[in-house]
Amino acid sequence: MAKDYKYIGKAMPRRRAVDFVTGKAQYIRDIKRPGMLYGKVLRSPYAHAIIKNINTVHAEKLPGVKVVMTYKNAPKWLAGEPMLVPHHRVVDKKVRYVGDAVALVAATSERIAEQALKLIKVDYEVLPAVFDQVEALKPGAPQLYDEYPGNFVPKYKPEVHGYEVVIGDVKKGFGEADYVVEHTFAVENRQNPLPPEPAGTIAEWNNGKLTIWGSIQQIGLIEMLMRMTLKLRPGHVRVIACDVGAGYGSKATIIGPNLYAPALAQAARQPVAVLQTREEQFATHNARMGSRARYKIGIKKDGTVTAIEGEQIANGGAIGCLQSQMLAVGLIAIPILAKCQNVNFTTNQARTNVLTAGPYRGFGYLEHTSLLSAALHVAMEKIDIDPVEYFKKNVIEEGDKYVHCYEKLKVSTSAAPSFAPAIQKGAELFRWSERWKGWGKPSMVDGDKWRGVGVGISGESDVGEQSSNKIVQLNPFGEVTVYHGGTEFGTGTIDVMKRMVCESLQVPLDRVHMSDSDSTVGPWEWGSTGSRSTYAMGTATLAAAEDAKKKLLERASKMIHVPVEELETRDGMIFTKGAPPGKALPWIAVMGWQGVIIGEGHYPGRFNLPTHQGHFVEVEVDTGTGLAKVIDLFTFTDAGQIIDPLMLKGQLQGFNAGIGLALFEETVFDRATGRVLNPNMIDYKTTVFPDLPTHNYTILETPITKADPPCPYNARGCGEMSLAPAGPAIIMAIYNAIGKRFNEYPITPDKILRALGKVKGGAA
After folding, report:
1. 700 and 559 fall within a common domain
2. Taking the complete model, does pTM exceed 0.90, yes or no?
3. Which domain holds residue 569?
4. Is 86 contained in some domain?
5. What is the pLDDT of residues 396-447, one digit of tens each?
6. Residue 447 burial by Cβ neighbours in a 10 Å radius (0-12, 13-18, 19+)
7. Backbone phi and psi for residue 295, each to the nearest 5 degrees, phi listed first
């Protein structure tokens, strides 16, 4: 039973909610700097080419044009990960995907900048291109970079980050299995993050110091990457996050506007804004990483997985953008989904001539969860086990040891309580036992309408990785300021921190003020990502609040000669516990009207608190049209302690993007040219309101007793995981509905009709 708090666990108004709904919020397109110019990008029509000649004379003469930048005069900055192999230039002589930058223009208006782009004349030598990651790694394939021989992306710090799992003896494990199955699966539809607001950046230089304003999710990470890329000293890059119109992971990189705007501003000696259009965001900004994998799995009749062997090959696109770290994080899907002590699984990545892949909700583990789950479905059917029983048997329990692949040298001991009770509770409320008819068997048939049920489980790599720092300042008048390095992009991150401070100090919400998201204001912070905000950032926030309270009460104790442990504070007043009402000391009496008290909080980073989420679904397939539709959804999770039920409900509804991933979302490339054919909201099919199913959920609040440091108010993150189980649940449900197994997303009507024998060959 969760504890009853005053500010924790209650549905309350969101911080700045009125600003967002009334249009007062300041997004990047609302920011104007004195003398600001506007930058535009001339983009390559070819997937792979060398610029033989570029003529910018007419563009430079156009009134209002201040800078025209090509590979000839661009800064020699090199970006891209792995950071040991920087390779991405601001503008290069060689273009590597359709939409790659050929030239940059800064002008007094966007219209003039666009006119200038049309005046630039370019002669290209078109080169052979490669779009498939397996083909890219073959001898003789077109080469993208000198830095990547054979298009092979080397492992970033392999001594620290794991890109393979090699434990036990797979030969012995296969020998112990009752059955051995092999399966391949692909997640290559390159789902677009679709933030409502496309990316944008304003850059300004003063005395060699750079300030950028942007639609940015992680100001600490961007500040660090900018310093490394631009070779600037600490303190010479300031990053300010505007209100962010969502990002879903896509606004945590320095490619695109975050690189173009500083380059143009440096050349122009004026502020420059580079604001992507929706079409640019679709066709040139990062999409989900494409992956395919093969598996060989040994399994016993009781559901014990004895061996896993295989390889995942990722399509990282044309630019390195955290994909290596995503592959490392993704490997946590193995211990989350299968308690297997004999594993030999490796990952590799290729550079190809398609737009870059990057972070998108489910940092690497969504891809691997989908890949591995599909193979496990085959294994589960082979032993004819109910998938709910399989997952309850294989879920990580408190005390289980596992290799955390993002920190290769450490074997973690799980501090998380078992997720099995949540699975069981969800199964009961979904009525799984009466709807599940067996593998490949529909739950209902009504003419052309066939229904099937499925279940998917995912686990976050860890909600505690990377460090956090916070400062809490008490002022004499009973008010509090929290200095932080977080950003707000729709998830409620800053609201969570504020609630924890209110609960610790027993101060009303309107008396706690959160600092701006500015890298020079708050202490350094990794940022809100990977569901780490509640645990990692919350731990630092609570520690800072408790430190400030301790100092306040210690000072009061000396004044009134009452032991600290007998004092408490509420509403800006200090009380002796059990004393009659009215006998209280205001903060100002302790601090003086010019004084403040500062509390500091630090969270060091931990790798032993995995968290899970799951979905039950019922899918209806129209065997006449091939259309599959999710008609019922039940989500189950364990939050430890709910901070705000409405915010958490919104996070759980992230499943809706999973419907698109599984059934229709797809970045369509012309296989001959590499051009994106659907860079708009009409041709790119995403989940809309008529597609949404009935959605119910259950949230357990199981005490977390072994976490070190303890979870703040027993709460931990459970938002990002909501997308990852969706695809596996849907693909299982479709198989059970019509008895046809699919090996890739999305499962579109033409594929279903083809599988049913109602469409011949390659007809779509």
Report:
1. no
2. yes
3. 17-25+466-603
4. yes
5. 899 998 877 666 556 788 899 999 999 999 999 999 999 999 999 999 999 9
6. exposed
7. -135, 145
